[in-house]
Amino acid sequence: MKGDSQMERKYPADMVAAVEYAERHRRVPRVLLAGTSSGCGKTTVTCAVLQALVNRNLQVGAFKCGPDYIDPMFHSRIIGAQSANLDLFFLARTP
Predict the structure, then answer these.
(1) How far apart are CA 40 and CA 57, in angstroms?
(2) CA gap 6, 54 in Å, rounded
């Protein structure tokens, strides 16, 4: 994907980097955490899981869907790297 100008025009640089990373590490285990409603503890559980993984010296990446800007700040604080938002990744490009 490196140098793919169409990809770079469609998504911000951090999303391009996230996709390139995922392509290189296809065998990376993934976990999806979801909840039934707002305030049900998704952020708390996510931060606890991220911290547990970091405590085991694992490389961790965090992603978020939705307009909330606070959760990625919590994720980033725990993992020591920027958390990415997947909204643009899932957004269909219209002509």
Answers:
(1) 28
(2) 34
